[in-house]
Give the backbone structure.
Amino acid sequence: MSGSRARVDAREKVMGAALFAADRVPDGLLHAALATATVDRGRIAALDTSRAEAVPGVRLVLTRLGEDELRPAGFLMADGFAFQSLQPLTTDRIAYRGQPVALVVADDPVAAAHAAELVEARYDAEPHAVTIDDPGATVVLQQEAIPLPFLADIVVGDADAELARADVTVDAVYEHPAQNSAPMELIGAVVHWRGDTLVVHEGTQNASSIRYGLARQLGIDAERIEVVSPYTGGGFGQKNSLQPHIGPLAVAARRLGRPVKLVLSRPQVFHQASFRPVSRHRIAVGADRDGRLLAAVHEADQQTSRHDLFPAMFTDVTSRLYGFGAFRGRQRLVQTDVQTPGYMRAPFEHPGAWAMECAVDELANAAGRDPVELRLANDTTQDPVTGRPFSSRYVAECLTRGAELFGWGKRRPEPATWTAADGAQVGWGVAIGAYPVATTPAVARAVAYPDGRFGVEVDGHEMGQGIRSAIALLVADLMGVPVDRVSVGLGDTRVAAQHLTAGSWGTSSALPAVHAAVLKLRETLGGRAPAGGPVAVSASNGLPQPMLERARTGLVTLAGPVYDDFVAFSFIAHFVEVRVEAGTRRIRVPRVVSVADCGRVASHVTAASQVRGGVVWGLGAALRERLEVDERYGGFVNATLEEYPLTVNADVGRIDVEFVDRPDRLLNPVGVKGLGEVSLVGVAAAVANAVFHATGRRVRHLPITLADLL
Ligand code: MOS
């Protein structure tokens, strides 16, 4: 296999030829910086920009924009385009620490940053709540607050009655902290006007939300907005919509008649972009004498902001992990004074599965059953919630193959009985994960050129996950040509609509459209090279026309995971070894085995990377990552890469990845389900279960640190 077949953009990236948003340097570029609120809640009483304006090189200080210049773009989850409804600089209300209060534009970035520090604000501060237990936080029942059918509590049978008659039960509360995705590419944009046309370069997962959101904000036709994002340096959900800085940048660029660039600092990313909110999970599970799971209850509380209800969907996945006879879910939202949280890599599936898979491990232990065996005994081919079949489900294969690769048969059943030669306690843990398979509208245009080259343009954003490689490989294989004869255009509103790429639906949405377009192209060509000029055809991935229309206006639209005839999820099993060092009680993870069921594997190299990345992130969630809130002033105290402890190479041992690799033909003709996010789901539980096996201590919060084991 040639290098280019492994990852088609590898060379471009390694050579620095791949252009990210902040790499764009149009002529006459000016630089912007933000001044931000130092209180968590209240009103701006006075703003003095005179010292900022006096800094040499400062061109403009924007504070409050009127309705005629900038309007809010609306909340992504309420038919809007932004990760939160609040648009800074259009209100004097302060809703979170770090909210922008002024945008400074200057000739160079140093002058802009210096001037931003000299903006003087006085606030009328009000009492604020930053934790979900603060008496000032407001708790709402999700299904009443947001009466949408897909957000209603999942209730199947009488779970509480079933639990009452169970022979073995576990009933416990699991706490998940807030986290930030901290993608390598900071959030930022280069914005300029070409005549009447606004051009936006921004690393994004959702170019169409920027286009249509800005159209709403600025009151201009979306046809006059171009969003260009061929590469995004990590999205993870944090770049899934219009960011609040782009509208003000567009206004500044128009007023000054010059291109303007803004790159948020790392602490600003932590305070101005969405993050994984705090969640708390009460799980009750019960089994009969034979280890058959009778029922589960999952009651979850999730943090949100005062101004938006970021909906929780934890129980959509936990209810599907096993063939529960009965299930009762209940989800509440807790409003605190913070920017609106959002989707961060397996946003509900990771915290939900962490809680449920710890509880199932506790149950296996209480019942004296092997945790792999108990899981296999409770697998199902039918969705417990809808009664429909799964389109494909190879959980048993993932568990069986994973156990074999890991050597699970040699595990000692009793916890805290295994000590290595160096005195470290050794523990082995297992957990499974699932992730919904959604499909979103995608339209592909395939072109054959007379010189034997092929081009395809489609909805999709390359965030490092390898979608460009998966697309190029499919086209090359279908046309029977080397992959270097295929070019792929995506992440650019000039070539396709660019609906949101998230939810691990990128490949399963784009590939079927590309597949359909290329088959059509093959038929049109009839085995001959195009004579005269290029031949182009278009095709969609077959979603209904109204969905295609809605997607074309930049609004979120998706099908699944419940489809007419089946329910679709991707699955995974993780096996983890931990070693708890004797003196320090430091937890090390020398090895992990993960086996995934994602349908057909579209690109082995990028797929295996996705799983390793998910595992690394899961180790971070289990052992390191936690945003520390500042109860005095709001916001987060560890908002830098020095103080927010991400997993580093020294924390990661061996990770072995395998795939079931069986196409899911019910779902789409290419047979792909989706992979990215399921990789992370269950990792933290497998670590926690291994820590219990090593030490006999059950830790029900994350991260698990040495302090928990001293
Ligand atoms: Mo992902 S959290 O769905 O971008």
The first helix runs from residue 3 to 6. DSSP finds 19 helices and 24 strands in the chain. Residues 176 and 702 are 6 Å apart (CA to CA). The first strand starts at residue 30 and ends at 36.
